[in-house]
């Protein structure tokens, strides 16, 4: 949805918007979740989607006519019915309520400005009072300061019985430490989801903007705490330099990002985990709890693209609260791998601290 939000804001900024469509209620199954949006332009162009493609053409065709007297709620069945004149859902299996509102109203402009602010890093709570007989649409937008607000909530403070409430979060930020060739598909896939990607590497011959056109920033930087990583961010450490990986782990772990993945073989990761623990004065349990290693879901496959898919998929599952079985190493696994690989006396000594 984040990529669609960017596209919707871009269309609005062109000054061609005619109507906004928001999915506000689902009964049964639906291809999209509540909060999905579609912005229709005067020339018939549109950005976003509110179904798997079965409703868009019909809604775009009728949007201008449907909002001629103001905001309205339209109900569409997505159950397959071969006797119906227009089988909208083609078997999607549910019913959806769509809020259609004309562009140019104060309520519309307020929401568009809020969506633009969210793309710039602000978190906003939006309460939209749905139009009914005798009641016009209203919209309240407030800044949110909590770390992880609910994305969609039925707890609307003003009119919980007839309002749609949601939280507009900023784009997921992903820091990719390492600018090698295998980082490029990670950046591409993350950008397709609308994430803001920052690539960092100490090697200027690799950390070049032209190698990562989809990245928001490409930085040539040594290990530093100045990147302001926070608890919402995701981090993938994949420099292929043992010393850089160790330094970045020690620098990032105290910031407690929501996801911190370490690329590399299990025995290498075990050594890095143990040395990062020693550098920070942390226990192995604490470090292991903060790191995903081996990085990525176990999807199978080989090559940079398959690894990138597993990394981005694990981050997505983590941020959505859908993460099931994980390959993360336990402290006893770390110690076993170190012993098996014959770690140096320095490492063994530090692990015993």
UniProtKB/TrEMBL annotation:
Enzyme class, spelled out: oxidoreductase
Any one GO molecular function term: xanthine dehydrogenase activity
EC number(s) on file: 1.17.1.4
Start and end residues of each XdhC Rossmann domain: 174-315
Record domain XdhC- CoxI: where: 11-76
InterPro entries, per database record: MoCofactor_Util/Proc, XdhC_CoxI, XdhC_Rossmann_dom
Keywords: Oxidoreductase
Name this protein carries in UniProt: Xanthine dehydrogenase
Taxonomic source organism: Granulicella mallensis (strain ATCC BAA-1857 / DSM 23137 / MP5ACTX8)
């Amino acid at each position: 949805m984040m990529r669609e939000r960017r596209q919707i804001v871009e269309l609005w900024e062109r000054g061609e918007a005619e109507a906004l469509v928001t999915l506000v209620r689902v009964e049964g199954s639906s291809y999209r979740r509540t909060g999905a949006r579609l912005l229709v332009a005067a020339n018939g162009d549109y950005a976003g989607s509110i179904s798997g493609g079965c409703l868009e053409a019909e809604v775009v065709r009728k949007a201008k006519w449907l909002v001629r007297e103001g905001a309205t709620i339209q109900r569409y069945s997505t159950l397959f019915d071969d006797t119906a004149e227009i089988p909208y859902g083609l078997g999607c299996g549910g019913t959806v309520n769509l809020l259609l509102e004309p562009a140019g109203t104060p309520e519309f402009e307020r929401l568009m400005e809020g969506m633009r602010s969210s793309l710039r890093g602000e978190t906003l709570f939006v309460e939209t009072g749905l139009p009914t007989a005798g009641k016009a649409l209203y919209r309240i937008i407030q800044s949110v300061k909590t770390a992880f607000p609910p994305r969609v909530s039925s707890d609307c403070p003003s009119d919980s019985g007839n309002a749609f409430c949601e939280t507009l979060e900023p784009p997921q930020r992903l820091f990719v430490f390492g600018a090698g060739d295998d980082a490029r598909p990670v950046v591409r896939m993350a950008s397709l989801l609308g994430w803001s990607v920052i690539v960092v590497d100490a090697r200027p011959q690799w950390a070049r903007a032209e190698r990562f056109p989809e990245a928001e920033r490409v930085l040539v930087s040594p290990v530093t705490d100045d990147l302001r990583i926070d608890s919402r961010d995701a981090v993938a450490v994949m420099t292929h330099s043992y010393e850089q990986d160790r330094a970045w782990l020690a620098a990032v772990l105290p910031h407690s990002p929501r996801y911190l993945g370490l690329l590399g073989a299990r025995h290498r990761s075990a050594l890095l985990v143990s040395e990062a623990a020693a550098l920070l004065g942390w226990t192995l349990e604490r470090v292991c709890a903060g790191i995903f290693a081996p990085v990525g879901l176990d999807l199978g496959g080989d090559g940079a693209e398959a690894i990138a898919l597993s990394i981005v998929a694990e981050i997505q599952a983590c941020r959505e609260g859908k993460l099931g079985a994980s390959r993360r190493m336990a402290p006893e696994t770390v110690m076993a791998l170190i012993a098996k690989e014959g770690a140096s006396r320095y490492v063994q000594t530090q692990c015993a601290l």
